[in-house]
Design brief:
Blueprint (H helix, E strand, L loop, with lengths): L13 H7 L2 H4 L3 H17 L5 H19 L12 H13 L12 H37 L4 E6 L2 E7 H26 L1 E2 L15 H7 L4 E2 L3 H6 L2 H28 L6 E2 L18 H25 L12 H24 L2 E2 L1 H9 L5 H10 L4 H18 L8 H5 L14 H7 L8 H15 L1
Parallel strand pairs: 3-4
Antiparallel strand pairs: 1-2, 5-6
Helix pairs in contact: 3-4, 3-6, 3-8, 4-5, 6-7, 6-12, 6-18, 7-10, 7-18, 10-11, 10-12, 11-12, 14-15
The structure holds arginine.
Length: 455
Amino acid sequence: MSNIRGRFSKPADKLAGQYTTSLPVDQRLYKQDIAGSIAHARMLAKQRIITQTDARKIVDGLLAIQKEIELGKFQFKPEMEDIHMAVESRLIEKIGEVGRKLHTARSRNDQIALDIRLFTKEAIAETQKGIRALQKAMLEMAEKNRAVVIPGYTHVQAAQPVLLAHHLLAYFDMLQRDFERFNDSLKRVDVMPLGSGALAGVTYKIDREFVAKALGFSKVSKNSMDAVSDRDFIIEYEANAAITMMHLSRLAEELVLWLSVEFGYIEIDDAYATGSSIMPQKKNPDVAELARGKTGRVYGNLMALLTIMKGLPLAYNSDMQEDKPGYFDTVDTLQTTLTIFAGMIKSVKVNKANIQRALGRGYILATDVADYLVKKGAAFRTAHEIVGKLVNYAVSKGKTLAELDIKEYQQFSPLFKADVLKITIESALAARDITGGTAPNQVARALVAARKIVV
Ligand code: ARG
């Protein structure tokens, strides 16, 4: 058994041991821990710090331990402080004295920094896959419904008509920024910290670049004190995750609204909804609501880590061990939400009749009528006022703008001619023919561009 209590005259208090151990949380890093140890042992042998024979025994022992863990045969002993001690002490149990050489020229401080960086690189790749899958689902929904027009909203008030595809591609673009944000942060994760030792570097002639290469890192850290006390890359993941979840939460809110009887724009598969224990008619959009709720927890994890780090002097402090529960929770929550949302979006059915009904309400062509007056010579502010009065009149008659006749229009301005009646949803869409606008040809182009991103 490895023992790092040489300095002490008695064992740790039982409750204190339970309080300080991170094993239940960081056992999830076993693969990264073992990969790091294998690279380290090989480097030690290459540098003749240990013999090739010893390195081989260590590597074989570590691989055997990995198998034990994966077969569920490894005993995670509660008295172990963390995954590093659990693996090392099992190694010593298995191969004896030689196992005690593995930790030469290394500290758990640079070891955990390595493990969590390896984990983060994988987490980013996996998260980006999830983002792409959801982008694809959004895009497919947009392509499938390319002719569907919905009222666009501001202040949750019907504003102007837009293509549903245009609305969906707005989420596609948000997710694209999320994808890129994770990419940007990757270069700061891709730094190999081993060799920093406890804080000041190590006294052996090690080859840090060899370890970096073996583990797939493109750089080694430049300052040992920074390397063992830097958790920026976790904070960055958590910040990126918070932004992505904010986007998913907005989408969730959209789905909740659209699934309500009052909107009724869409239906989702029963698999993504739950019933009420009392009201038999209910089909609650639970998945969307919980995503909105979980977003709060993901924000909380970011705040927690920023707070953990803010008062820490250099270099390593045990406070930093508290980075992991919230971090793993954030990674899991984000990845699961992305996956579930992709499935849920794929199951969406659009209810065109309800959307059609909504399009007739809300005077969503009023801006186009004002623009009509401008094109006939009115100043925009004047046109705005005239159409405001026109809408007020229509409301009082219980009519839509389309139901007014030309005489009624002309009561408000002599600039109105019969062609004002030609303003339709279709003409309003087609008129917004500028880059980024909702005109069908612009949206068709945006769909093609989006296809190139997700293929
Ligand atoms: N378990 C620690 C963590 O997760 C790593 C060990 C750090 N070193 C120490 N002396 N406690 O951050």
